[in-house]
């Protein structure tokens, strides 16, 4: 990737970064092929957005189906992806004094016309998610086909196409975003670089 060294500063200053041609071509192909095979094999599950919603509503709010990567069943292609992300994790820790310690990732497939409405990735019950990472596996994607990742920034929006071999990073805690509906299937790897969950600040009672 070009300009690799600018990634930490961009992430800190602007809150999001795009890295083009992030992996070697054959690895991207292997990941796309693996995801399709797992889809065919019925391993994907409807993604959820928490409790208390009707199934119907959930699919309207979040339409992707996902297949989590399991640390004890990592494939060769996944290993190559995770190794690259590991370099990024170390770079961010070094330059931004973060303490990112783990990663998590899943394949995601949005069937045509499905979306993910505006949201934040850091939920109340998952404060460890610090940097969101989305890597796209769609060749020849055109703007007319929709499917943009729309970032909601202060007074502005930024639309990014889910293009082949493109990695998008953004701060999980404060960048609201959404996935627009597309006219074709949209395949990606979504993940997070995570911090250890913050310890509560102890309350000190003064003795009087
Ligand atoms: C998510 C998400 C964005 C994308 O899975 O939480 O926002 O572009 N994905 O797929
Ligand atoms: Mn998200």
Structure at a glance:
With 208 residues, the chain is of the alpha+beta class. The protein has helices at residues 7-14, 25-40, 55-61, 76-96; strands at 16-19, 45-46, 65-68, 100-110, 116-119, 129-136, 149-153, 156-160, 167-171, 176-179, 186-195.
Which features would summarize this protein structure in a list?
208 residues; alpha+beta; 7-stranded antiparallel β-sheet; single chain; Jelly Rolls; binds manganese (II) ion; 25% helix; 30% strand; binds N-oxalylglycine; 4-stranded antiparallel β-sheet; globular; 4 helices
Topology of this structure?
Elements: H1 7-14, E1 16-19, H2 25-40, E2 45-46, H3 55-61, E3 65-68, H4 76-96, E4 100-110, E5 116-119, E6 129-136, E7 149-153, E8 156-160, E9 167-171, E10 176-179, E11 186-195
Antiparallel strand pairs: 1-9, 2-3, 3-4, 4-11, 5-10, 6-9, 6-11, 7-8, 7-10
Helix pairs in contact: 1-4, 2-4
The chain binds N-oxalylglycine and manganese (II) ion (MN).
The value of Rg in angstroms is: 18 Å
Task: Give the termini separation.
Answer: 61 Å
Query: What structural category arises from helix and sheet content?
Result: alpha+beta
Poorly predicted regions: none
Order of strands across the widest beta sheet? 1-9-6-11-4-3-2
What ligand species are in this complex? N-oxalylglycine, manganese (II) ion
Q: Helical residue percent?
A: 25-40%
The CATH topology assignment is Jelly Rolls
Please tell me the CATH architecture by its name.
Sandwich
* Estimated share of beta-strand residues: 25-35%
Tell me the series of helices and strands, N- to C-terminal: HEHEHEHEEEEEEEE
The tally of domains stands at 1
Instruction: Let me know the largest β-sheet.
Output: 7 strands, antiparallel
By CATH, the superfamily comes out as: q2cbj1_9rhob like domain
**Oligomer, anyone?**
single chain
Q: Report the top-level CATH class.
A: Mainly Beta
- Per DSSP E runs of 2 or more residues, the count of β-strands stands at 11
Q: Can you tell me the overall shape?
A: globular
What's the tally of helices? Answer: 4
Would you tell me the overall average pLDDT? 90
